[in-house]
Design a protein that fits this description.
This protein is an all-alpha fold and about 90 residues long. The protein has 4 helices and no strands. Keywords: Plasmid.
Length: about 90
């Protein structure tokens, strides 16, 4: 576990200052259950990314999936499906 911490620390030190200085980025902070935090740390370690990049990746993936689901729900019916349903 100590080796993973050192690896993660080096990743954080390499990327955080660049994002901190970038006006296109904002800080995000919150409290989560420890079990979820541990899963998140493992997610980051498995992918070789720091917490900042891991959080960005997960949020991006979440909103992509959410957008896809919303598009599937709001797909307009075609003329064929309306005709089929009305003749029933």
């Amino acid at each position: 576990m100590k080796q993973w911490r050192e690896k993660l620390r080096s990743l954080v030190l390499a990327t955080v200052p660049a994002k901190k200085e970038d006006p296109g980025y904002a800080a995000l902070r919150g409290h989560i259950p420890k079990s979820l935090y541990k899963r998140f740390k493992m997610f980051c370690l498995e992918r070789g990314v720091d917490n900042s990049q891991g959080l960005e990746d997960l949020i991006h993936e979440y909103f992509e999936l959410k957008d896809q689901q919303e598009q599937e729900v709001y797909i307009p019916k075609t003329a064929e499906s309306n005709t089929f349903n009305s003749s029933g």
